[in-house]
Write a structure and sequence with these properties.
The complex is a heterodimer. By secondary structure, chain A is mostly helical. In chain A, strands 2-1-3-4 form a 4-stranded mixed beta sheet. Chain A is built from 20 helices and 4 strands. Chain A starts with a helix and ends with a helix. Chain A folds into 2 domains: 99 residues; 228 residues, no CATH class. By secondary structure, chain B is α/β, with parallel strands linked by helices. Chain B has 2 domains: 217 residues, Rossmann fold, CATH 3.40.50.300; 61 residues, Alpha-Beta Plaits, CATH 3.30.70.260. In chain B, helix 2 packs across helix 3 and helix 2 runs parallel beside helix 4. The chains are: A mainly alpha, B alpha/beta. Chains A and B meet through helix 1 and helix 11 of A and strand 5, helix 2 and helix 4 of B.
């Protein structure tokens, strides 16, 4: 164990001093930020065209009233009154609009808005806020009472409602149903951790393969056993993954709190987070075992056979079934996937983030399955690693790997 | 010489039904340089890897007298496969290997700087391995194998790939270490280097022992006299000279390999008068020649396989 920790420390130090690791460590959250904020930034640039010059033909003499509406002030139209009844005088002018407020159009219920071609498409939407005062005007002219007007103006809406639940206490109801973030935040947190350590876990693959390629394994193995070397790598890259998460969260949490005014920490610091973290770590150990074992069979990354390539894809398997699982977190697919070791960690996290009531029995079965698979995979990886790391000059074939496993 | 540190007995190992080494027995003593010699593929590295516990022997035993199992912290190992972490600074690597051996880091740093200076690598401790030439990297690797002051140093082909200057440097260092009491086991196929260096040798061919003994014993037993004559002479005429085992002729130069029981003054007196001699020299055959003789099957040793030096 002490030797494993030495290896772990070395692997961490080696990577932390490596420029490309540092760059990607900081670049990932920055890229993430850029992609998250870029669209809204671009939109801002986009949505500030010159406000159009709006000519109002005000036959109804209501414009003075309407001009006071707060929305209009925000829009900052360039309003000009006009006596022209025919909009054809706009011909040839740029960025102009013409609104005709006449008895005729009010009675028809349709107010024509003429715009020149270059006016922003949103302008027509912006004119909508004129609809309500004009409707008011329409109604007032019918000589209705205030009450009647407000009733008519209200309209009729269909509204969704809950079936009353006599047994459940008032308090439980409020907590359970209304806050999807309660489960989602710890789930997302564990998901980020799983993602991060699986990504660094893939670096184990490279590390094992490199150890072999640089032919340094034999020297290292003169000081410790293959098992210690392998465990050291697994622990080391776990540490790196955690460092990575830490750095990411250092960026993410303040930004989320600042931008969305969202109390992340409150949601995060609950006992459920611990279970979710346990699942994430179990997922890491499982994939780390696979990667370190397979990495020890590969010397030349470019000549990696399909077999090894497929193994690298295993962590992404849950992505294929995540759709149905989100659609029905207690469905058949979700259940089977949480008992299958490769998909279990990711799918469990997704399910537990989506479900209000946790299916404890299923969680326990999944954890047992995971624990057994980790034990088995570690054992197998140890066998492959021991022989593979010292085989120079070529990649191992699946047949050879099979032979080592049976030794 | 001191007490034995490592004893190998009846070692055997096969891969896929092919016996790589068979019945290998020897020991290494404190303060001596013991060489395993043999052509490529003779089983030298396999023997060493079995000692290091990197492979497990099918038969036989390996005993380290200071401890049970492989005393990893007391062994220094330079494998035949050269390699070090590429993108890492020299000092970092050396300290890592020292740490793996539980050697105090401050002491290791001091020793590393000393050795870097000794090996003409002064001021390079912050250079990464990938910036070094192959020979320089090998020096670093050598330092990494001795940084923790091992009791037993195992060097697999330490001289391969080195220029003559570096070879001398390595030889001197290995001798120094032995004088300070380190037991050294090294393998090589470069006999001329080993000849001046080792105290005892174990010659292996096709996985089996050919010769085992001290350098002097081996020389006395196997290194017969040879006579080199410069001048154009008939091969058949030379072969008729008494006590000549075989003759190698290359242009004007002939090498006469003499039998073991030759008495040089007498032999010189009876040389035929008609021989054309521009130069003549007599010396013992080198280890190199014994070795080539064995490897190519020319030497009569192959027939006298049962005759051991000890």
């Amino acid at each position: 164990m002490r030797n494993s920790l030495k290896v772990a420390k070395w692997e961490m130090k080696k990577n932390m001093k490596n420029k490309s690791f540092i760059i990607s460590l900081f670049l990932t959250p920055i890229l993430f930020l850029v992609f998250a904020t870029l669209p809204s930034l671009l939109e801002k640039f986009d949505s500030e065209p010159e406000p159009p010059t709006v000519y109002i033909f005000d036959d109804l003499h209501v414009w003075n009233e309407m001009e006071k509406l707060p929305q209009l002030k925000e829009l900052a139209w360039n309003v000009k009154a006009t006596e022209e009844e025919n909009p054809s005088f706009l011909e040839g002018k740029e960025n102009v609009a013409y609104i005709s407020l006449t008895e005729q159009s009010l009675n028809d219920g349709k107010i024509p808005v003429y715009i020149s071609e270059d006016v922003d498409g949103d302008f027509v939407h912006e004119t909508r806020f004129l609809e309500e005062p004009l409707r008011q005007l329409q109604l007032t002219r019918l000589d209705l009472s205030e009450e009647e007007i407000s009733l008519i103006a209200k309209g009729v809406v269909m509204e969704e409602a809950e079936i009353p639940h006599p047994e459940s206490s008032q308090k439980g109801d409020v907590e359970g149903e209304s806050d999807p973030f309660k489960r989602l935040v710890p789930g997302a947190f564990a998901g980020v951790i799983l993602f991060s350590i699986v990504i660094t876990g893939m670096m184990i693959f490279q590390s094992a393969s490199q150890e072999k390629k640089e032919k340094v394994a034999e020297i290292v193995l003169s000081s410790l056993t293959p098992e210690e070397l392998m465990n050291g790598k697994i622990i080391g890259y776990f540490g790196l993954g955690i460092v990575q998460v830490f750095v990411w969260l250092l960026f993410a949490i303040p930004i989320i709190m600042w931008r969305f005014d969202f109390p992340v920490m409150e949601y995060l610091l609950v006992p459920e987070t611990l279970l979710l973290l346990l699942i994430a770590i179990a997922g890491y150990l499982l994939f780390a075992a696979i990667f370190v074992g397979i990495g020890a069979t590969v010397e030349d990354m470019t000549a990696t056979s399909n077999f090894q390539g497929m193994v690298m894809m295993l962590p992404f398997l849950p992505a294929a079934i995540i759709g149905p699982v989100i659609a029905d977190p207690s469905g058949m697919i979700a259940k089977i996937a949480s008992y299958f070791p490769i998909t279990s960690p990711a799918i469990l996290l997704v399910r537990l983030s989506a479900l209000d009531e946790w299916p404890w029995m299923e969680i326990i079965i999944s954890l047992v399955v995971l624990a057994l698979s980790i034990w088995l995979f570690m054992k197998l990886a140890g066998k492959i690693f021991k022989t593979g790391i010292l085989m120079y000059g070529k990649n191992a074939t699946p047949q050879e790997i099979w032979k080592w496993l049976r030794q | 010489m001191g007490e034995a540190i490592l004893t190998v007995e009846g070692l055997g190992k096969s891969f896929k039904n092919k016996q790589i080494i068979k019945n290998i027995s020897f020991h290494v003593k404190k303060g001596e340089i013991m060489a395993i010699l043999g052509p490529n593929g003779a089983g030298k590295s396999t023997t060493i890897r079995n000692i290091m516990g990197i492979m497990y022997p099918d038969e036989g035993s390996i005993t380290f007298h200071s401890s049970k199992g492989v005393p990893r912290h007391k062994i220094g190992y330079l494998p035949e496969e050269r390699g070090l972490y590429k993108g890492v600074k020299i000092m970092d690597i050396l300290l890592y290997f020292a740490e793996l051996k539980d050697y105090p880091l401050e002491k290791a740093r001091k020793r590393a700087l000393e050795y870097l200076e000794k090996f003409d690598l002064k001021g390079k401790e912050k250079v990464t391995i990938e910036e070094l030439s192959k020979g320089m990297a090998q020096k670093v690797q050598f330092i990494s194998s001795i940084i923790h002051e091992p009791e037993l140093l195992i060097l697999d082909e330490p001289f391969s790939g080195l220029d003559p200057v570096s070879q001398e440097l390595f030889k001197k260092e290995i001798k120094d270490l032995a004088n300070k009491g380190t037991a050294i086991l090294l393998s090589s196929h470069q006999m001329n280097l080993v000849e001046e260096l080792c105290d005892r040798l174990f010659m292996i061919h096709q996985g089996q022992k050919i010769i085992y003994g001290t350098m002097d014993e081996v020389k006395k037993e196997y290194a017969n006299f040879k006579c080199t004559i410069k001048g154009s002479n008939d091969l058949s005429r030379l072969e008729q000279i008494a006590m000549v085992e075989r003759v190698e002729q290359d242009g004007d130069q002939s090498i006469l390999y003499l039998t073991g029981d030759v008495v040089i003054p007498q032999w010189l007196k009876q040389l035929p008068e008609g021989l054309q001699i521009e130069e003549l020299s007599i010396d013992r055959t080198s280890l190199h020649e014994i070795f080539i003789g064995i490897a190519t099957g020319k030497n009569m040793l192959m027939k006298e396989n049962e005759l051991y030096a000890k």
